[in-house]
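User: I'm writing a tutorial on reading structure tokens. Could you give me a worked example: one chain, its sequence, then its tokens, then a sentence or two explaining what the tokens reveal?
Assistant: Sure. Here is the example chain.
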Amino acid sequence: MEAYAIHKGAIIKPRLARMTMDLVRGKDVSMVRNILETTNTKASRMILKVLNSAVANAVNNFGAKENELVIKECFVNPGTVLKRIQFASRGNVDRHDKRTSHIKVVVTDNKVMEGENA
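And here are its predicted structure tokens:
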């Protein structure tokens, strides 16, 4: 049984979010929560919210036990780029790209649901 949660359009650069995401890949949920709560980054706060949502989806929708859940896969994909301008000297215009991310976390308890074909 798998459950997932996605945060689309998170205003954080994908490269910065991936550095924090690499810390938690493949670990159990209680350990990941401890890691993210003690890591002081914007990415860790966003990933923690997505993780809590994925765990809540697994518990409420599929009846999974929270202490048995493990992160199956998690990744950060690039989202849309917000293009902003800033006026520069001598009549020039500089472009500043504000990058966004799509954060996805999939949790599983490694059990097969009834009615699923394996």
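What the tokens reveal: The longest helix spans residues 42-62. Residues 58 and 94 are 46 Å apart (CA to CA).
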